[in-house]
């Protein structure tokens, strides 16, 4: 008998790999060209839309009764001035559907899907299938088709992120990081790492080119002062100043590593860094479930604890956002409590 979620894992892996290869191809053509601007002024590109259309269409084919909480919707795209962008998405998604992938035999059998020709309407509907409101009951796939869009646009790190939330709990997380080195010891070597974790089954990575999965674990640290921090590049997404004070309180002297996207979770899960800090910059911002579902399970399964800034577990049962939480802190299991204490002290000093 297969392990629990083996079928979901195979399908999520192949789907995320497909979308990651597509994003890689689009990034090569797109860097520097901007994209569509959303109402909140954040960027969204052909890559974001095409990847969401692709993943969503594949999930619908395999799991027709599951809901999808996807970041994007087609509203801005349906404006007449976006007709060229829309045509590009339809072409790229169709091409990506036909690509062959390096998969293990069993994975290929599970991931195989009947070829269906889709036009404009079907691809736009696939994007909008990501409109689930989430919640505490049932199966919801959380999809961030491109996380770190700003990194994607500047040629840096970005990730395709897919998590399965069942009755409010993340049970499967898959992430594709096209620009992350397969071997962190060889930063200039092959790029493109795919990560997967199933609840209770550990965390693994593979390259984009070979199906072999290798188990990953966080570093075991002799002391917190030897740790290194990972944080956003964007100062508007996480508070760099407070992070620096937390480092000081913990005796950490190494420079923090700034990186776009949920690649930060992957990076600490395999020991390239140790602690991920995401302290709120705005009092009203609610973190999104698609920004944290897959990454948080990956870190938990690699030996860490992921909580909010107060040490509370992330609550994925409340809809499209983590409205019950503030900020995110991920650290090795044995050091997490001390990190939370330092966060409380640093934030207390600021009188926030
Ligand atoms: N004020 C804010 N605080 C925290 N996160 C924010 C934010 N505004 C946008 N974001 C999120 O930050 C994500 C990128 O995180 P990071 O800075 O770690 O790369 C974005 O994901 P997308 O790039 O998928 O839109 C977006 O969801
Ligand atoms: Mg995101
Ligand atoms: Mg995104
Ligand atoms: Mg976005």
Automatic annotation (TrEMBL):
* Residues that hold Mg(2+) according to the record: 71, 144, 146-147, 291
The protein's superkingdom reads Eukaryota
The catalytic activity, as recorded, is: 3'-phosphoadenylyl sulfate + H2O = adenosine 5'-phosphosulfate + phosphate; adenosine 3',5'-bisphosphate + H2O = AMP + phosphate; adenosine 2',5'-bisphosphate + H2O = AMP + phosphate
Provide this UniProt record's keywords sorted from A to Z. Answer: Hydrolase, Magnesium, Metal-binding
Which CDD domains does this chain map to? PAP_phosphatase (cd01517)
Q: Which cofactor does it need?
A: Mg(2+)
Note the SUPFAM superfamilies from the entry. Carbohydrate phosphatase
What NCBIfam families does the record tag this protein with? bisphos_HAL2
Q: What is the protein's given name?
A: 3'(2'),5'-bisphosphate nucleotidase
Per the UniProt record, the source organism is: Rhodotorula graminis (strain WP1)
